[in-house]
Amino acid sequence: MAVNLPLVEVPIVDYGADEDQMVDYRRNGTLRALDLDNRGPIRFDANGRLHPDIVDSYSRHGFYVFTGVIGQQELDEIERDVADMLDRSPVAKDAEIDKHGNPALGVGLEGRNISWVRPLSDPLGGTDTAYGRHEAKMNEPLPPAEAPEHVVQLFLGSLQFSDACLRLYGHPELLRVAETINGSDFTPFNEAVWVKQPGLGGSVAWHQDGWTHWDSPALDAHTHGFNFMAQLYGCDATNGLWVVPGSHLMGKADIRGMVEAAGSDRLPDATPLICAPGDVAINSRQAIHGSFANTSSNARVTLNFGFHRRASVFGVQSGGVHNPVSEYDDEYIFERSKAIAWAIDARSQHFVNEERYVYEPFRGIEDQFTWDDAARSELRDYNLRDIGI
């Protein structure tokens, strides 16, 4: 990699009395993950749609690892941008200046843009946050004595902070995957960069992302959409996301009951994402997933960006988890989808020999969405229009 992220250096941390059990759990989970038929390069059929074998595997397991999607040049560009975002972050939680004394990243914006966490903590488990979907608290290992009070864990609305993230959002093969899964009129969800710092990154309690549609008679495996999870450095059982295969087919699960039955936060059927740098996982938002505190010496940087079916979001009242309470009408969806059009053009300008994706809702008006300084200004606070269900 071209640069090093400005992360806090701390020693590897263990789980104390639970460390032996955690080592076994990681080992067994890795074996389960590698035994599944849900990894490989992106492949398309003769009609340009995602290969049916991949669609079938994703539909059964609720997640799939696309290998080798992002090349080294693009990884280097992403890393430089993420390093810049960290360097420009507030010097401490709630501060308005960075460590250089300059206005910090996100200052002056209306939307939420940086999320902090106490080292190795679980801030969401067992709380009422986001409709209480994080039902059971995760284990919280003791952080090292030299750990800061808080660390950055999440950049929201990341497309406005990083041209490299924006260009990845316009990746033609990933958008063709989205089209196959959600239809040619697919809509955005939200975009974020997760930074799970070594020896410091907090956990995210087991949850299913969706909070609407669970009682809908039309509920199926793809109702709540999916997230792409692009890996800058790769991830494994020590620092990556874990998913319960097939849980996206269960409807609304009793996660608290599952944790109680397991006797710990180690759900027995869960498997970790095993990814190399440049791999991109797709994960159903209905699947039970979560991540443990990053006690390892390896950073995980994940670029998240999700998509929905238009039929799942049109006319829906959001509930205010990812944005101010709004109804998703034609105007709202169109305005939020401009980010896709700008991303496609930004990528086309940068990777001039790559096939450009045509986003059906903007077909014929693509030339109105050139990525330039005016578009950059219009992208400010774009995540106030995130589309969450």
Give a description of the structure.
- By secondary structure, this protein is of the alpha+beta class.
- The chain has a single domain, classed as Jelly Rolls (Sandwich).
- The chain has 10 helices and 12 strands.
- It has helices at residues 19-35, 52-61, 72-87, 129-132, 163-169, 172-182, 255-262, 310-313, 330-350, 373-379, and strands at residues 39-40, 63-66, 114-117, 151-156, 187-196, 204-207, 226-231, 241-243, 271-272, 280-284, 289-291, 300-308.
- An 8-stranded mixed β-sheet has the order 1-2-10-7-12-5-4-3.
- Strand 1, helix 2 and strand 2 form a beta-alpha-beta unit.
- The radius of gyration is 20 Å and the shape is globular.
Strand content: 5-15%
First CA to last CA: what distance?
A: 37 Å
Radius of gyration, in angstroms, nearest whole number: 20 Å
What structural category arises from helix and sheet content? alpha+beta
Quote the average pLDDT.
95
Poorly predicted spans: none
Instruction: Give the number of DSSP strands.
Output: 12
Break the fold down into its secondary structure elements and pairings:
Elements (H helix, E strand, L loop, with lengths): L18 H17 L3 E2 L11 H10 L1 E4 L5 H16 L26 E4 L11 H4 L18 E6 L6 H7 L2 H11 L4 E10 L7 E4 L18 E6 L9 E3 L11 H8 L8 E2 L7 E5 L4 E3 L8 E9 L1 H4 L16 H21 L22 H7 L10
Parallel strand pairs: 1-2
Antiparallel strand pairs: 2-10, 3-4, 4-5, 5-12, 6-11, 7-10, 7-12, 8-9, 8-11
Helix pairs in contact: 3-5, 5-9
